[in-house]
Design brief:
alpha+beta; Immunoglobulin-like; 2 domains; 4-stranded antiparallel beta sheet; 13 strands; 17% helix; globular
Length: 213
Amino acid sequence: MGKINQGILGGFSGKVGNVIGGNWKGIDYMRVKPANVANPKTEGQVDQRTKFSTVLEFLQPLKDFVKVGYKNYAIKMTEFNSAMSYVLKNGVTGSYPNFTIHYENALISRGSLAGVLNGTITSSTAGAIDFAWEDNSADSNASTTDKAMILALNSAKREAIFITEGVSRSTRAQSLTVPNDFSGDSVECFIAFISEDGLSVANSKYLGSVTVA
């Protein structure tokens, strides 16, 4: 039974029909109690849950990178949830039950800062992946002092190695040290940039996969 606290126009606490009232941090709220689902395993629901699991498995090793990469999109949600929402809508390919991540579309950072120009990856030394790019600091809103954000995802091991404040854009190259047990594994590589003051971030760019030396 619901109880009105401040007259007919005030908030209420408790339950009236399928409406639940309460107060959180001094703010009165009402929400509708969700209806019971007769069949929680319809084709559409299973499809969506499988997509969700695919994206969650992809993003979990990247959560600390995403916290920086989605900092400007954490509006009424966490950075991780913002990334989940974007990748669910844009970064999944295939059909049930064989969903996979479309890496080119699965942005792990988002923003208006100028992105990478002609990025490449190689691995010729054990335990290291070499990222390189052209200096486009004269273009758009790019700057020589922008910091590289580089990441290598070992999906087989569900582990990501990354740097969120690397060398400057004008340096044009950075080596990422990875664990010795990555040797022989294929890893997926991404790059973005963040401004020196940390306020602006670039969309990430998928550079492809490389076999670690």
